[in-house]
Amino acid sequence: MALKSYLLTPGPTPVPERIALAMAQPILHHRAPAFEKLFAQVREDLKWLFQTKQDVLVFLSSGTGAMEGAVTNFLRRGDKAIVVNGGKFGERWGKILKAYGVEPIELKVEWGRAVEPAQVAKALEQHPDAKAVYVQASESSTGVAHPVKEICALTRDRPNTLTVVDAISALGAFDLPMDAWGMDVLLSGSQKALMLPPGLAFAAASEKAWKMAETSDLPRFYFNWKKEREMQAKNQTNYTPAVSLIVGLAEVLRWLKEDGLEKTFRRHERMSLAARAAVTALGMKLYTDSPSMALTTVIAPEGIDTDKLVKVLRDRYGVTLVGGQDQAKGKIFRIAHLGYFDEFDICTAITAIERALADMGAKVELGKGVGAAMRSFAETA
Amino acid sequence: MALKSYLLTPGPTPVPERIALAMAQPILHHRAPAFEKLFAQVREDLKWLFQTKQDVLVFLSSGTGAMEGAVTNFLRRGDKAIVVNGGKFGERWGKILKAYGVEPIELKVEWGRAVEPAQVAKALEQHPDAKAVYVQASESSTGVAHPVKEICALTRDRPNTLTVVDAISALGAFDLPMDAWGMDVLLSGSQKALMLPPGLAFAAASEKAWKMAETSDLPRFYFNWKKEREMQAKNQTNYTPAVSLIVGLAEVLRWLKEDGLEKTFRRHERMSLAARAAVTALGMKLYTDSPSMALTTVIAPEGIDTDKLVKVLRDRYGVTLVGGQDQAKGKIFRIAHLGYFDEFDICTAITAIERALADMGAKVELGKGVGAAMRSFAETA
């Protein structure tokens, strides 16, 4: 018998059985009324999730496609834009901007740290012509939550500067009220807190952003947001949508609405607190002092290579989580608790981590981490 | 009890139950060895399907994303390219080219007709600097198969002109041997003959095309084929792939390989011949004299509005097929038999069409069409 499989990565995340089976139903044709009716409901529910009055557009792509669109639909060739780069996804903003002839003003942030709003304020002073600030709400490579609300406050009164927020692994995990905070572009994806397979990307834009879009001159076709907005207003898409994923999304959104946003965020917070309590009790240190509720990043004990730890967890215990990338390679591991998790999933993950660390010769008192997690869950129940 | 549902559209096409259930399995992480192993096999099997030695790249997008990439990865701003425009998808090539500052030389072809190779030859003479010929193997809006082999013969010896073939609704339905015919770029998608939900696009390029890619200067990021080629050579993708669809694709390809290409093409041909026999027996005319094996396009009897026919078929009989677009709107209907169909599916569709036409007051001898289809199937068995 093969190992039972446990997935705790920051995307894709586990798909609930009932959602997986909903998507296995006979396929709908995207030009038929049954699809249009479903899509109309999905569009309404996405506004609820994004906490916005704006249309939320649905794309068939990974989140990176939405990141690209958040550049090409708003900027002009030769523009400048500020990029918060404190990890792999922050770095990606710079690469996309360069690919389209936009000059990135990179705010290098130490991995594991959140950007200081003052850093952004200073960059905006030095570059008053910067057309946008690009930032991650949750930087998956480091587990950091950046101060989105504070950054929005800096650009809110600037008519020609947008705040663009990649919430691909954040939306649905913690509170990101688009309109209330004044975000100009907010992005997300299906394979994170929305508990679906990869395949859908989401994007909403403010009035200010749509106004800037009118003068944008960067080339785009598949990710032409203006044309998609016009078409999706008719509950249709310009190009064949991922109908099966949209069927799953309709189910997921119905489910999340039953719980409500507050309960959903609280669920993620409880996972996060328990994971932190567990690894701390095991004597390990957190990688960041600004943790995202989507995942917990942990510095491994001295002498433990996390690439090897990940391998032991996977091959010996069936638990898939990820280690560190680039400068954090071998040094950290990341426990994602994004989407369809309950307290027993977290306890299982901690149990497996304790076992694997002990196998690798680390000093571990078996049960100490899981006990701390359980106490945390009891306290926050 | 709701109507049973029958889907006969040129994409999405029905997903076989066993494939739908394979995709409902617990989700894989795309950076884990289990995915890499699966993807390595998929990449091999796609070469077999494309009949090429080249790498077949897998993208998370609809087919249009691959069409865009087939422009942005090979051309330069200000280039000229010949476009065969005899339908909605041919028209799309021109729109993509313009969006990226490439000048389309449009060969307007009457809807329902295939382009004459002589037309392409003449355009190549008049525009020897044209960098590519863009064409559909099967133009879904008209049901026309264009002469891909003959067009390839025209560009084969021109070192600076590519033939780019959109086989999104053709690959797997009829023979399109990429290397043998000398195609430079060949595209396909998941939701057609590959019997999967929408979400995957495929693309392969010849040595000549990859060489031209070196001097291309159009901007691209998500659809950067060169970077994808490098990454996919390691059985990985740059951005999160549609893991669940790739699991389904692995199953589909295994299945198709069991049958072999010849049998698969023959299966589509039999559906096509039977559908044509049926509608002809009912006194209707085919819309094209160069029919694609992917779908049969039919001119409705005098006085029958096909938009209404489609509605009657759907609402009264549970059969979803599509009518005509633009200039063919109301005039034609399209019976797709692409992917997971057997002879009884075709007979059901014909039966429903007979019933719906009779309901609408057309002169129909019930059973005449389905009898002709059955005879055709018996003859080609």
UniProtKB/TrEMBL annotation, chains A, B:
Pfam families, A to Z: Aminotran_5
Domain Aminotransferase class V span(s) in chain numbering: 20-328
GO terms assigned for molecular function: transaminase activity
Keywords assigned by UniProt, alphabetized: Aminotransferase, Pyridoxal phosphate, Transferase
Gene3D superfamilies per record: Aspartate Aminotransferase, domain 1, Type I PLP-dependent aspartate aminotransferase-like (Major domain)
Cofactor(s) needed for function: pyridoxal 5'-phosphate
Highest taxon of source: Bacteria
Keyword Transferase: yes
UniProt xrefs under InterPro entries: Aminotrans_V_dom (IPR000192), PyrdxlP-dep_Trfase (IPR015424), PyrdxlP-dep_Trfase_major (IPR015421), PyrdxlP-dep_Trfase_small (IPR015422), SP_NH2Trfase/AEP_transaminase (IPR024169)
Family: Belongs to the class-V pyridoxal-phosphate-dependent aminotransferase family.
Protein name (record): Class V aminotransferase
Lineage start: Bacteria, Pseudomonadati, Myxococcota, Myxococcia, Myxococcales
